[in-house]
Amino acid sequence: MNYDIRKNTLEECLEHWSNPQDHNLAENYNGPQCKQRSKYLVSIFKKYKIPKNNILEIGCNCCRNLNKLHDHKYKNLTGIEISKKAIEKQKEFFPKLKVTLINNTIEDCILKFKDNQFETTFTMAVLQHIHIDSNWIFEHIARITNKNIILIEEPVRNYKKIFESYGFTLIDKRNCNKIEGLVKYKCFIFKKG
């Protein structure tokens, strides 16, 4: 089922990602093209000197990005993932990965996090799928993040306006058009203050 974040219901959106189909299956998130995306993410973390501790990924799927960060000595990693099947694939693909995984919707768990709980919060191709009824989560992403927000997303929302209204400054915005599978994407790097 294809869905539209403005036309379909929030429940249809959550169901779609709880039980993904076709190219959104967790097995497809660990191929060579996707691994290139994780390498790109690490290059962004290094370029902007992102602290190597206390990082949250929203929509971590099978934890490919978190595993790549772990390989580069990042620690205290947390991931939120709605799909139980993706969490199960993490155990198969990356059995040695030490990460805190939360199998739930962002809507259900973000209110439980403390203010400034994470040094860095990041997403890759996730926020573009958040239903418009859940736009309230952006305030909480800012609330729980102490220093850095990194988004690799299709620019379907004005992320600059959103996060600057919550005290973050956009320090860079980069095209991802040289990364396979991210041609339409932009990378937004925000710092608090």
Model description:
With 193 residues, the protein is of the alpha/beta class. It contains seven helices and seven strands. It has one domain: Rossmann fold, CATH 3.40.50. A seven-stranded mixed β-sheet has the order 3-2-1-4-5-7-6, sandwiched between helices. Helix 3 links the parallel strand 1 (53-58) and strand 2 (75-81). The model has no long low-confidence stretch (mean pLDDT 91).
CATH superfamily: Vaccinia Virus protein VP39
Rg over CA atoms, rounded to whole Å, is 15 Å
- Count of the domains: 1
Q: SS-based structural class?
A: alpha/beta
State the end-to-end distance. 41 Å
Q: What's the arrangement of strands in the largest beta sheet?
A: 3-2-1-4-5-7-6
Low-pLDDT runs? none
Q: Estimate the strand proportion.
A: 15-25%
What pattern of helices and strands is seen along the backbone? Answer: HHEHEHEHEHEHEE
CATH fold-type name: Rossmann fold
CATH class: Alpha Beta
Shape: globular
Main sheet specs: 7 strands, mixed
How many helices does DSSP assign?
7
Mean pLDDT: 91
Q: Can you give the helix content as a percent range?
A: 25-40%
- CATH architectural grouping: 3-Layer(aba) Sandwich
